[in-house]
Amino acid sequence: MSTTHVVILAAGKGTRMKSADPKVLHHAGGLPLIEHVLRTADSLRPATTVVVVGHLGDRVKTALGKRLGLRFALQQPQLGTGHALLQAEPHLAGASGTVVLLSGDVPLLRAATLRALVDTHRARDAAATVLTARVTGPHEYGRIVREGGRIAAIVEHKDATPEQRRIDEINSGIYAFALEPLFAALKSIGAANAQGEYYLPDLVGIYRTQGRTVEAVLLDDSREILGVNSRRELADVTAILNTTRNDELMAAGVSIVDPASAWIGPDVVIGTDTVIHPNVYLEGRTTIGAGCEIHAGVRIVDSTIDDGAVINNYCVISESHVGRGARIGPFAHIRPQSDVGEGAHVGNFTELKKTTLGKGSKANHLSYLGDTTIGEKVNIGAGTITCNYDGVRKQQTVIEDGAFIGSDTQLIAPVTVHKGAYVGTGTTIREDVPAGALAVSAGKQRNIEGWVEKKKQR
Ligand code: UD1
Ligand code: CA
After folding, report:
1. What's the CA-to-centroid distance between 342 and ligand 1, angstroms?
2. In 302-435, which residue ranges form alpha helices assigned H by DSSP?
3. Cα–Cα distance between 446 and 450 in angstroms, integer?
4. Does the Cβ of 79 fall within 6 Å of ligand 1?
5. Opening angle at CA 456, ends 451 and 458, nearest 5
6. Band (138; pLDDT cuts 50, 70, 90)
7. Which residues are CB-neighbours of 95 under 8 A, at least 6 positions away?
8. Mean pLDDT, to the nearest integer, of 38-63?
9. Counting atoms of ligand 1 from 1, which one is nearest the CA of 84?
């Protein structure tokens, strides 16, 4: 078994994006473009993975910093794709095997296609194997020039004759190379062309002149090698990734009412018979159980929603857990480190932050509950506010099982309402409430008879 090394080119300027950010960090299908490429590369289990960075290279490096074992080569200045690959040479010194060259801006390539490219390359014992595709309409790809049916050279669009521009077989920019002759040959590439760059595709002509074997593998679906050079292409790729993702989920038993407007990240897991309504965003490491209903306009990030939960319209949930059969929203905000218990209810205009709402408890209207631990079967009345911040520190509120908090209550933390206690409407709680007690703080009501009439006379 021959060793595989992957080199990913990501040093280019990406001028056509008109962006202050590196092109390969733009997102499509819930991931930066280059992350899609890296995941596909990982499927080859490469011995080495080198990312060639240059323009805004530090940003790219930082963004990929969490990936272990990744190596970076710096290309400065950026003198073309051939020059870019050359920068990976120190990382591959003394190695042997196959170098797979990928572009950081070509995110739709499938693992199976890449596998087939490498397998053909090895079976034919080629020096280079190019992944090609047939496309229709005007385009700026390099053209595959064949002689007697075999690939003879690649001519860049800008350098091509009108006749060559009519060739509909194009270079995907994805290749497999035998490592042994690669770097010596790269050094013989010149830059006498329309763009004054060292073109990697020139290697094909060089190898053919040297009598080496060059192969081409023709793709069935040219969409797989769509490169992102502009915002338009970014949107096209995003739409394709979304269709693929949603088709996969629907095939696995998830109902998606309007697949064009359901945005579900690649690492999201969803159980069967869950219904996803329009304009829903499910992101990051989110898991949704079976038989859930996720209504329109909901955004869920890095959270776990258990079976049978209902998330009503326009809720935002992040880094939190929602228990089995719980009901959230509409218009609820569940902020990080919150835990809504089994069968609990969080109603409209209620915000939770670092708060546990126990099994069967309810906070149905207009409340802020922060840094709070709420037990089971607690009722939180409308307009309840935990005053968790004294301007310096965040403090804890504890509300034990079975407590009843009347509407318009303020709980000034740190404070505990013990088991089964009641808090009267409009109370400001500054001290702990013992189990079974009723706490009230509002004064006795006074009615001033005839006050309105007197006011009019004044
Ligand atoms: C390239 C190919 C073209 C092919 C097309 C497929 C060349 C000369 N042309 O054209 O035949 O049809 O891809 O998408 O290779 N990069 C660097 N350093 C550089 C220049 C580019 O790292 O100095 C990187 C870019 O960041 C990008 C990739 O190489 O990831 C391709 O470069 P790009 O400028 O997009 O090449 P294309 O014009 O698309
Ligand atoms: Ca490109």
Report:
1. 53
2. none
3. 13
4. yes
5. 95
6. confident
7. 3, 5, 47, 48, 179
8. 97
9. 18
Mean pLDDT of 337-366: 98
| Ligand 1: centre distance to CA 20 (Å) | 19
Query: Which position has the token pair 């006011």?
Result: 455
Q: Could you identify the atom of ligand 1 that is nearest to the CA of residue 174?
A: 6
CA separation (Å) from 68 to 38, 48, 64? 12, 11, 9
Q: In angstroms, rounded to a whole number, what is the distance separating the alpha carbons of residues 417 and 406?
A: 12
Q: Which residue has the tokens 């289990």?
A: 45
Q: What is the pTM of this model?
A: 0.92
Predicted confidence at residue 443, as pLDDT, reads 83
Cβ of residue 75 lying under 6 Å from some atom of ligand 1: yes
Check: CB of residue 100 under 8 Å from CB of residue 46: yes
Active site residue 365: yes
Model confidence at 442, pLDDT cuts 50, 70, 90, reads: confident
Closest CA to 373 of 331, 428, 332, 411: 411
Cα separation values, 369 from 149, 167, 313, 403, 415, Å: 71, 65, 20, 15, 13
The residues whose Cβ lies within 5 A of ligand 2, an ion, are 227
pLDDT tens for each residue of 287-306: 999 999 999 999 999 999 99
Q: Mean pLDDT over residues 25-52, rounded?
A: 97
Ligand 1 pocket check for 156: Cβ under 6 Å? yes
Question: What is the per-residue pLDDT for 1?
Answer: 60
pLDDT tens column, 143-202: 999 999 999 999 999 999 999 999 999 999 999 999 999 999 999 999 999 999 999 999
Mean pLDDT over each residue of the chain, to the nearest integer: 97
Report d(CA 355, CA 263) in Å as an integer. 28
Whole-angstrom distance, CA of residue 363 vs CA of residue 356? 12
- Identify whether 330 is preceded by a cis peptide bond (ω within 30 of 0): yes
Strands 27-28 and 128-134: unpaired
8 Å CB contact between 385 and 399? no
Tell me if 306 CB under 6 Å of ligand 1.
no
Amino acid at 157: H
The b/e string for 325-361 (b: 16+ C-beta within 10 A; e otherwise) is: bbbbbbbbbbbeebbbbbbbbbbbbbbbbbbbbbbbb
